[in-house]
């Protein structure tokens, strides 16, 4: 049983005993969709003969809630159900316990019984790689078919619906529309689509692929076609090969169909105006008698092989097809394309094993990254040894599909040949990307060397993780140090098979250690339950009899009212010439009474870490108290440092906080970025609802179409919402604000009463009308706190819940707006300064934290009062705080007195929806004049600037890198 029970023998004279039982004995919520509540009930029963009382129950996890209940008594044989709710906020595993407070005889003396509970948050969604499908020219009364590929990449079933929206919906259809169908995890399906025109001219419709969940937005695919009445159909009339890697060949097919009732003469095809000599006909049909019969169709295959980067001159494909007996010229198909780098990257190139000891081997991996917009196929892997040693594919070569944005690994093993020294091989891979085929080549290098037996020491001899709270993670180093006078060869350090699953590590490659140097394996310990855990770290060294090194691993998962958070501090990589970095840990004593802390100590690479604390040992921590401890990291030499901070509470293992960092000496840094190929943008307008803003609200709403200019042109998948600068309800009086909150939206999207759609997307009908209604927030407030309103709109509990638990209005949460893979744009519209309680830096840090510190995904723009108020008499004050945040994030600043709202909103639209132009650097350049920018390997000397305030390289609007481009920025580093 999972209940924590204390048993004892009962004398015959003792009273009847009570016994708590539970069904189920472990609450396994399993896979649960993020943001959706999953409910389980646990039946508590009395398995004894005497009654007992259940006083309450709590869960140790913040995203698990026990429905409140009054204390109840269970008589012998009695049962009572308790409802437990799990609402995952993020993806991933969680584990904890349900604690039941009772006076039953079979529980521990503190009256607390425990049931394990676990669950896993999973996003339910479907992947639709193609967002537009062109049916081409279709004769009236005919049917043209296409397929829409839909895939469920998640681990939960996704109920899916396909429907059509638009004025031409009657001309498009599918046998899979209207009715729900379920995609199992990993299942793929091709949905048939039809276009049967009933009217002449262009037709289009939005096919919406929806997942049946409360927070899921439909994926919109644009379908288009043209109804024609001609007898000859040529599809397509324009062939755009897109971007093709230099040296690779892409093929496209052109179909020619005789739709008339009479035959046509067919004299073949020919490429003309091909000044770059990059297009060629791969297959031209030969017809009997050179006649294309009525109803017949032929296919012409055309290839594009670019030889230079950039767009190539447009060429044409002439089709000699005409009615018999006439001399009319045949149709011409436009051919276009662009040469560039491949969107599939193999790295590292070269793959260098370095030095490997003779008699041993090493395995490393080549990563194949698919940065294309569609899936590709990796095939025909071939590894050829050019000289020296043995190079082998670690697994049998096979064709592997690589989904867009993902990667696969190709492991390669190198074994030196005795006495040969340097070796070299070549890995060749064929990439199929639609109709394009390219060959990628990676050099593989390695050298063999005879080593004398390695003299080494394990540091530490045993890795002791101590006490770690269930669900938390600690990382410590398992190291081998060369203590001899000659070099050591180390390979394959990893967590050994058979170790408890709570231990994990990223396997290391081969390494040559000079005397005194060491190799470190960073081992992670994350207990999923209470109890003892053990395992082994292993590796191999060049020693004839002691070449297999083994380091025991041990740790203990615990739960209790004492804890230290976070349990792991990663100081990252630091240059030795820079100053120290400082972090904090918090010691929590949530116990009902005092706790004695006997000592605080450092183990491992303690010399590079310093701890500052207020304790005098033995220290007594008061009940329900917390104490902050500062940790400073200042590396003294190159290499990885790993240490353990131990909190000694007496008998038993100490509580452990792990600390890692790396010191380096380097003079130059290269940051690499991949330009986004498909844009998603979440836009939040923060609108001032004070008494002077009525005209500005109307101007904003009536010019919404200008704001969407760039979004529509780029096909951006956007979410747009509105909140106000008001946090508290208006005190009333001269004006009442609409929307149900009386001006106190407190971060909730307007209108909180749901009288209008609160999140606008590309599928929202009459989006401009909805936005105009949503920006008419009223003029009833006086305390403008726009930055705080933005913070509350995007923070817990609003951002993750469909309903704000703090308010009486139903369904007034902001869940479904913020997407992990979308750019975030905030636009404040106000004539007053911001009076939020926190400094601007707090709100900037919050926004960056939402996007993993990626400055390219955060923009704050402001339409506010300018510094020169004489130029803007309508502004109440200078919006300095809004403007400061806009400047810090690369946003746009416009005056609230703008004479042309459309032009101002267009500039903000270009900034929010246009291609990414800002690329933040990971380090500060020591000399900005030596910054080198390359796009797809070619140096770019103009069209960009460096902004020292944000440490960002910013491209001009007309020079932004194309989608899918690789941007590399190299610069000398400073501190």
Could you characterize what this model shows?
The protein is mainly beta and 975 residues long. Helices cover 7% and strands 47% of the residues. It is built from 8 helices and 67 strands. Strands 18, 20, 22, 24, 29, 31, 33, 35 and 36 form a 9-stranded mixed beta sheet that branches. Strands 19, 21, 23, 25, 26 and 27 form a 6-stranded mixed beta sheet that branches. β63 (932-935) and β64 (938-940) form a beta hairpin. α1 (694-702) packs antiparallel against α4 and α6 runs parallel beside α7. The chain is globular, with a radius of gyration of 33 Å.
**Whole-number mean pLDDT:** 85
User: How many H/I helices?
Assistant: 8
What level of helicity do the residues show? under 10%
Major β-sheet profile: 9 strands, mixed
Radius of gyration: 33 Å
- Number of beta-strand segments: 67
Low-confidence stretches: 1-13
Overall morphology? globular
Termini, distance in Å? 57 Å
Strand coverage percent: over 45%
What is the structural class? mainly beta
């Amino acid at each position: 049983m999972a209940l924590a029970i204390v048993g004892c023998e009962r004398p015959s004279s003792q009273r009847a005993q009570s016994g708590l039982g539970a069904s189920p004995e472990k609450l396994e919520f399993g896979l649960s969709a993020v943001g959706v509540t999953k409910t389980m009930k646990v039946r508590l029963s009395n398995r004894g003969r005497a009654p007992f009382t259940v006083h309450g129950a709590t869960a140790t996890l913040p995203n698990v809630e026990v429905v409140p209940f009054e204390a109840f008594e269970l008589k012998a044989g009695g049962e009572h159900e308790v409802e437990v709710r799990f609402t995952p906020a993020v993806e991933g595993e969680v584990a904890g316990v349900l604690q039941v407070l009772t006076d039953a005889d079979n529980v521990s003396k503190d009256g607390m019984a425990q049931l394990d509970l676990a669950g896993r948050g999973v996003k339910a969604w479907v992947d639709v790689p193609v967002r537009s499908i062109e049916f081409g020219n279709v004769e009236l009364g005919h049917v043209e078919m296409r397929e829409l590929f839909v895939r469920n990449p998640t681990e939960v079933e996704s109920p899916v619906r396909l429907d059509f929206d638009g004025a031409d919906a009657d001309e498009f259809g599918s046998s899979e529309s209207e009715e729900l169908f379920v995609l199992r995890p990993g299942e793929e399906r091709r949905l048939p689509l039809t276009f049967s025109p009933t009217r002449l001219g262009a037709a289009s419709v939005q096919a919406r692929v929806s997942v049946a969940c409360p927070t899921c937005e439909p994926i919109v695919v644009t379908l288009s076609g043209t109804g024609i009445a001609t007898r000859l159909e040529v599809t397509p009339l324009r062939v755009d090969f897109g971007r093709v890697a230099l040296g690779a060949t892409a093929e496209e097919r052109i179909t020619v169909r005789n739709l008339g009732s009479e035959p046509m003469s067919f004299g073949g095809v020919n490429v003309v105006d091909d000044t770059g000599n990059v297009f060629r006909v791969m297959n031209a049909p030969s017809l009997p008698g050179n006649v294309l019969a009525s109803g017949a169709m032929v296919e012409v295959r055309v290839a594009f092989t670019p030889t230079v980067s950039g767009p190539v001159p447009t060429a044409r494909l002439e089709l000699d097809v005409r009615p018999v007996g006439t001399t009319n010229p045949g149709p011409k198909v436009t051919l276009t394309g662009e040469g560039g780098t491949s969107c599939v990257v193999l790295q590292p190139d070269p793959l260098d094993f370095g030095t490997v000891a003779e008699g041993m081997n090493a395995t490393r991996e080549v990563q194949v990254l698919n940065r294309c917009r569609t899936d590709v196929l990796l095939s025909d892997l071939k590894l050829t040894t050019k000289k020296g040693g043995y190079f082998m594919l670690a697994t049998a070569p096979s064709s592997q599909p690589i989904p867009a944005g993902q990667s696969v690994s190709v492991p390669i093993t190198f074994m030196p040949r005795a006495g040969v020294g340097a070796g070299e091989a070549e890995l060749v891979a064929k990439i199929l990307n639609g109709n394009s085929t390219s060959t990628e080549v990676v050099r593989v290098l390695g050298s063999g060397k005879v080593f004398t037996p390695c003299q080494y020491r394990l540091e530490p001899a045993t890795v002791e993780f101590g006490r770690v709270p269930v669900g938390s993670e600690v990382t410590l180093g398992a190291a081998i140090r060369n203590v001899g006078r000659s070099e050591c060869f180390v390979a394959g350090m990893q967590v050994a098979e058979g170790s408890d699953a709570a231990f994990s590590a990223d396997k290391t490659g081969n390494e040559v250690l000079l005397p005194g140097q060491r190799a470190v394996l960073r081992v992670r310990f994350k207990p999923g339950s209470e109890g003892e855990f053990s395992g082994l770290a292993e590796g191999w060294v060049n020693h004839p009899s002691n070449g297999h090194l083994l380091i025991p691993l041990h740790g203990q998962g615990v739960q209790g009212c004492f804890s230290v958070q976070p349990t792991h501090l990663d100081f990252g990589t630091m240059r030795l010439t820079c100053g120290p970095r400082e972090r904090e840990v918090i010691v929590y004593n949530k116990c009902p009474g005092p706790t004695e802390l006997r000592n605080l100590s450092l183990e491992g690479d303690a010399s590079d870490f310093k701890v500052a604390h207020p304790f005098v040992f033995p220290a007594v921590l008061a009940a329900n108290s917390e104490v902050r401890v500062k940790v400073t990291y200042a590396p003294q030499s190159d290499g990885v440092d790993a240490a353990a901070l131990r909190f000694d509470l007496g008998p038993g293992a100490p509580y452990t906080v792990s600390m890692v960092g790396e010191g380096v000496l380097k003079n130059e840094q290269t940051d690499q970025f991949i330009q986004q190929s498909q844009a998603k943008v979440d836009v939040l307008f923060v609108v001032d609802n004070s008494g002077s803003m009525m005209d500005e609200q109307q101007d904003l709403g009536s010019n919404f179409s200008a704001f969407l200019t760039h979004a529509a042109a780029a096909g951006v998948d956007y979410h747009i919402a509105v909140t106000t600068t008001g946090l508290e309800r208006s005190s009333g009086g001269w004006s009442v604000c609409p929307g149900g909150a009386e001006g106190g939206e407190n971060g909730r999207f307007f209108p909180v009463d749901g009288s209008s759609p609160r999140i606008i997307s590309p599928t929202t009908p009459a989006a401009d009308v909805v936005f105009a209604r949503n920006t008419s927030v009223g003029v009833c407030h006086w305390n403008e706190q726009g930055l705080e309103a933005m913070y509350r709109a995007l923070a817990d509990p609003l951002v993750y819940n469909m309903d704000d638990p703090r308010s009486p209005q139903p369904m007034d949460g902001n869940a479904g707006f913020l997407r992990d893979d979308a750019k975030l744009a905030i636009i404040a519209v106000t004539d007053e300064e911001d009076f939020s309680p926190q400094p601007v830096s707090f709100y900037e840090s919050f926004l960056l934290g939402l996007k993993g510190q990626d400055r390219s995904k955060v923009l704050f723009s402001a339409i506010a009062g300018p510094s020169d108020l004489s130029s803007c008499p309508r502004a109440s004050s200078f919006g300095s705080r809004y403007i400061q945040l806009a400047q810090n994030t690369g946003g746009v600043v416009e005056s609230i007195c703008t004479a042309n709202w459309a032009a101002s909103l267009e500039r903000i639209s270009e900034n929010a929806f246009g291609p990414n132009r800002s690329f933040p650097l990971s380090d500060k350049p020591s000399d900005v004049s030596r910054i080198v920018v390359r796009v797809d390997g070619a140096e770019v000397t103009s069209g960009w600037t460096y902004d020292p305030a944000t440490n960002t390289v910013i491209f001009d609007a007309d020079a932004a890198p194309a989608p899918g481009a690789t941007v590399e920025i190299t610069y000398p580093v400073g501190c």
